[in-house]
From TrEMBL:
<feature type="active site" description="Acyl-thioester intermediate">
    <location>
        <position position="89"/>
    </location>
</feature>
<keyword id="KW-0012">Acyltransferase</keyword>
<dbReference type="Pfam" id="PF00108">
    <property type="entry name" value="Thiolase_N"/>
</dbReference>
<protein>
    <submittedName>
        <fullName>Acetyl-CoA C-acetyltransferase</fullName>
    </submittedName>
</protein>
<dbReference type="GO" id="GO:0016747">
    <property type="term" value="F:acyltransferase activity, transferring groups other than amino-acyl groups"/>
</dbReference>
<dbReference type="InterPro" id="IPR020613">
    <property type="entry name" value="Thiolase_CS"/>
</dbReference>
<keyword id="KW-0808">Transferase</keyword>
<dbReference type="InterPro" id="IPR020616">
    <property type="entry name" value="Thiolase_N"/>
</dbReference>
<dbReference type="Pfam" id="PF02803">
    <property type="entry name" value="Thiolase_C"/>
</dbReference>
<feature type="active site" description="Proton acceptor">
    <location>
        <position position="366"/>
    </location>
</feature>
<dbReference type="InterPro" id="IPR002155">
    <property type="entry name" value="Thiolase"/>
</dbReference>
<dbReference type="InterPro" id="IPR016039">
    <property type="entry name" value="Thiolase-like"/>
</dbReference>
<comment type="similarity">
    <text>Belongs to the thiolase-like superfamily. Thiolase family.</text>
</comment>
<feature type="domain" description="Thiolase N-terminal">
    <location>
        <begin position="5"/>
        <end position="249"/>
    </location>
</feature>
<feature type="domain" description="Thiolase C-terminal">
    <location>
        <begin position="257"/>
        <end position="379"/>
    </location>
</feature>
<dbReference type="InterPro" id="IPR020617">
    <property type="entry name" value="Thiolase_C"/>
</dbReference>
<feature type="active site" description="Proton acceptor">
    <location>
        <position position="336"/>
    </location>
</feature>
Length: 380
């Protein structure tokens, strides 16, 4: 099987829903990172065979095949195709998988994997609003036959995880506080500066709150009476985009590209859709087994902090070291622009491996429907 290499990884800063980035059209957000990727790698854009872009709420300004419109909005060659995909929160991590698989199969040499989400312009859940407005069912009769009419939501899933693993509200808030501390430190030290491409006057990630405290978080109301979940232990609603250029060994040589990392393993696993957020656990086990690695071999992990119980349960079940998990903070502090997060996390992971000299990196995240992607890479 042919090798696939990451030769470029760039992202916008992640902005809040009230950020100046929220006024930028999603196609222009995507265009920005696509153009930056081409310029930073020096690749001939006409040699890029496809743009695979993750986006969750594909309505309004995020509709009409955003991958294609973003590429064209960047002024890049019309000969490059584009496709937009939705695997919920893992959409652009799946874009990386599809791009790498195209290269590893030998059918493609250069593929751009990307992700975009402007949650300030297109609200979360916008893609199901039509059904709600018109009294239509979200799920069909087959789903109801199998799972009944119980609530299916990420919020309930997070609470169910707390109950299953025995996490208290204090456990979650302590984890969230550390995420903010790490993120604030990373932003202040400029650790993300080489991987980000400023836009609309936004130069650095906006979500970290260095002044937060256990006392402030304790004052928030739970999402429901008796729950441990509050807004403080959930990912932030955000705006952002990221792009990861995947190349074959032949393309590396022909275009004089510099590999940053080698794709080691691509895995995908489904789990209980009611719990929804637990799939990173079995998916990581599967990926490590196929790669012939142990969790102790992983130098840096990026696991999406959709809610604090997700990384906490994952670390407990895998025996993972939380010191090397989200070392620069996660989505609780830095935000979660849905379809962009996979590309954003991969960009962070690649650059952190180079910053620290680590060998192996692992990325995973929970996804709607009870799914999880896992990507293992090796620094080159």
């Amino acid at each position: 099987m042919a090798e696939a290499y990451i030769v470029g990884a760039v992202r916008t800063p992640v902005g809040t829903r009230k950020s100046a980035l929220a006024a930028v059209h999603p196609a222009d957000l995507g265009a920005h990172v696509l153009k930056e990727s081409v310029q930073r790698t020096g690749v001939d854009p006409a040699a890029v065979e496809d743009v695979i872009m993750g986006c969750v709420s594909q309505v309004g300004p995020q509709s009409l095949d955003l991958a294609r419109t973003a590429w064209l909005s960047a002024g890049l060659p019309e000969t490059t195709a584009g496709v937009t995909i939705d695997r919920q929160c893992g959409s652009s991590q799946q874009a990386v998988h599809f791009a790498a698989q195209g290269v590893m199969s030998g059918t493609q040499d250069l593929v751009m994997a990307a992700g975009v989400e402007n949650m300030g312009m297109v609200p979360m859940g916008a893609s199901v609003q039509y059904a709600l407005d018109n009294g239509l069912d979200i799920y069909g009769s087959g789903w109801v036959d199998r799972y009944g009419t119980q609530e299916i939501s990420q919020f309930r899933g997070a609470q169910l995880m707390c109950e299953k693993w025995g996490f208290t509200r204090e456990d979650l808030e302590r984890y969230a506080l550390e995420s903010h501390r790490r993120a604030a430190e990373a932003v202040a030290e400029g650790r993300f500066d080489t991987e980000t491409a400023p836009l609309a006057g936004v130069e650095r990630d906006e979500g970290a709150r260095p002044d937060t405290s256990m006392e402030k978080m304790a004052g928030l109301k739970p999402l429901r009476e008796g729950w441990a979940i509050t807004a403080a232990v959930a990912s932030q609603i955000s705006v952002g985009a990221g792009a990861v250029l995947i190349a074959s060994e032949r393309a590396v040589e022909e275009h004089g590209l510099t590999p940053l990392a080698r794709i080691v393993q691509l895995s995908l696993v489904g789990d209980d859709p009611v719990y929804m957020l637990t799939a990173p656990i079995p998916a990581t086990r599967a990926a490590l087994k196929k790669a012939g690695l142990s969790i102790g071999d992983i130098d840096v992990t990026e696991i999406n902090e959709a809610f604090a119980p997700v990384p906490l349960a994952w670390a407990r079940e895998l025996g993972a070291d939380l010191d090397t998990t989200n070392p620069n903070g996660g989505a609780i502090a830095l935000g979660h622009p849905l379809g962009a997060t996979g590309a954003v996390l991969m960009t962070k992971l690649v650059h952190e491996l180079h910053r620290t000299g680590g060998r192996y990196g692992l990325q995973t995240m929970c996804e709607g429907g009870g799914q999880a992607n896992v990507t293992i890479i090796e620094r080159v």
